[in-house]
Input
Amino acid sequence: MRNLLSMEHLTNDEIMLILERAAGFEAGEISNLPRSYNVANLFFEPSTRTKTSFEMAERKIGCTVIPFDAGFSSALKGETMYDTVKTLEMIGMDAVVIRAKEDEYYNELLEGINVAVINAGDGAGQHPSQSLLDLYTIYKEFGSFEGLNVTIVGDISHSRVAKSNATSLKKLGVNVRFLCPPEWAGNFEAHHSWDELLEDSDVVMLLRIQHERHVINKSFSKESYHEQYGLTFEREARMKEGAIIMHPAPVNRDVEIVSELVECERSRIFDQVRNGVFVRMAILETILKER
Ligand code: CP
Output
């Protein structure tokens, strides 16, 4: 694997190798990379988890993390993504981790760029490292994927997490269902009520409402969204034994989920964050050892 751009590019075998390596890192294994690689994290959209998690993972596998402040870079003077990445390659980077607001920004990097590119989120396109850490979280819980019911709830059309997970979970044999207001379904066939979804879900995966990608919708009400689609105490109580709650975060508390349920027994929301470091170590090692 030379880059990580979209879950559409990964085979099930490649996914499982990353999950097994993440499990090894979680069990205390150390990286077998032959040298310290230079990595820069280019975040042109805000991030708390993904950026910090990648930086932690890079340090844990012995990389040298070269600071890059997207908000104070020559991208603000109009430099293209290609020229930015080519410049970092010439300075000596082995890999760049990029988050950008344009869908598939990475297409302009496929020709002429030799540094490895890891997509940390492209607009409303893909978020493959989040998908891999979600898969790892599910795998740790259930030990396999085949036949599980996963219900993805919320802002589907704007969510790169929904798209990456729909791709990867279906490939792995999961029965994926979508629940959202009709106007947020995008190209997905979605349910618009919890009926018939709650009691047999093994995983309820909630999504953040991405107000920053919405055209202003004055009729949107947090209260009415919560009432129709939010995970309330009453709905949580109807979930089956052993079922878990996930959310990529950041969470809009009391909108997608009642605040008190964020750390309830079923919730794996903060475990996902912890798992992300091991998964990103595995992603980085897999890619860097090919160089
Ligand atoms: N889940 C996720 O991508 O979070 P950040 O935006 O904080 O990186």
Summary: The longest strand covers residues 116-122. The two ends are 10 Å apart (CA to CA). Residues 47-50, 130, 248-250 surround phosphoric acid mono(formamide)ester (CB under 6 Å). Residues 7-125+274-288 form a domain with the Rossmann fold fold (CATH 3.40.50.1370).
